[in-house]
Amino acid sequence: MKKEKWLFIGKDPRIKKSAILIDTHEREIMHIESGEWTLELEDLCRNMQPNCIVFPIQPLDAVKDIDYTCIPKETVMFFGRVAGPWKSVSELFTSYFYLQDEQFIWQNAKLTAEGWVAAFYKLNQQSISGKTFHITGFGRVAKMLANILKSMGAKVFIFVRSEANACEAKAYGYDAAILTPQRFAKEPISWLLNTIPAPWFTEDYLKLSTKEMILYDLASAPGCLREVDLKDRYELMPGIPGEYFADDAAVLLSDTINQLYNLEKE
């Protein structure tokens, strides 16, 4: 029986561990630790002729124009996010987006929230109980963050961009308000956790923030800053699950890929 050929690409530790977990007697697995699409990868695809390619959550940098002809037309691709040229490439193949799988999204959000707590302890060596944390956005990651912080005795304030989200946050029992510079200025913010995947933090917000404020950006790169330099008061923290819980994150990713692939084969 001819083995399936799987190619995993990415520097995130969960990618390497997922490649190990997904290995079976029917599969030939290769992992390339790279954050870029290179000529070497194109040569590898021509020689390997992979049946499946698994990409990391963040799109690979394209150091050259992508020559998709090096990849067999029948190849099944698994993406996290797609942007730039990768969006066009994904449309040429049978592509699945594990970051759109509801189970993956919620479990990944849970790992992100727990991982941020670990990062907070490591970076600050302070207790969470009794402190006030301001969170921007109220999506899945924000909900998990708010829940875990509240359960640990912290006070949580939610900034959102719509009245509907503000009402939802209040229904969960949190103080909440629409995110505007004027409303932002009324809050004495020490710990700001951003989950909004857009560059909203402008010079106006910088002028209104306290000197003690530290911004932890959990949104995907490039984060929330817009032509602003917070220097040592800013931490861009994408990929927390892979950094703090590589084994658990790999199990989640490999299980999701297997489920999506089994749907493809049915």
Low-confidence stretches: none
Order of helices and strands: EHEEHEEEHEHEHEHEHEHEEHH
Q: Can you count the beta strands?
A: 13
Q: Mean pLDDT, as a whole number?
A: 94
Largest beta-sheet characterization: 6 strands, parallel
The dominant shape is: elongated
Model description:
- The chain is an alpha/beta fold.
- It folds into two domains: 4-100, Rossmann fold, CATH 3.40.50; 109-243, NAD(P)-binding Rossmann-like Domain (Rossmann fold, 3-Layer(aba) Sandwich), CATH 3.40.50.
- It is 39% helix and 20% strand.
- It has ten helices and 13 strands.
- Strands 10-9-8-11-12-13 form a six-stranded parallel beta sheet, with helices on one face.
- Helix 1 packs across helix 10 (246-265), helix 4 packs across helix 5 and helix 4 (102-124) packs antiparallel against helix 10.
- The longest helix has 23 residues, at 102-124.
- The radius of gyration is 21 Å and the shape is elongated.
- The two termini are 19 Å apart.
- Pfam families: 2-Hacid_dh_C.
- InterPro entries: D-isomer_DH_NAD-bd, NAD(P)-bd_dom_sf.
- Residues 107-175 form the D-isomer specific 2-hydroxyacid dehydrogenase NAD-binding domain.
- It comes from Chungangia koreensis.
- This is NAD(P)-dependent oxidoreductase.
Descriptive tags:
single chain; alpha/beta; Rossmann fold; 6-stranded parallel β-sheet; 5-stranded parallel β-sheet
Task: Summarize the SSE layout with pairings.
Layout: E1 4-9, H1 13-21, E2 27-32, E3 36-37, H2 39-48, E4 52-54, E5 61-62, E6 76-79, H3 85-90, E7 94-97, H4 102-124, E8 132-136, H5 140-151, E9 155-160, H6 163-171, E10 175-178, H7 181-185, E11 191-194, H8 203-208, E12 214-217, E13 234-236, H9 240-244, H10 246-265
Parallel strand pairs: 1-2, 1-4, 3-5, 4-6, 6-7, 8-9, 8-11, 9-10, 11-12, 12-13
Helix pairs in contact: 1-10, 4-5, 4-10
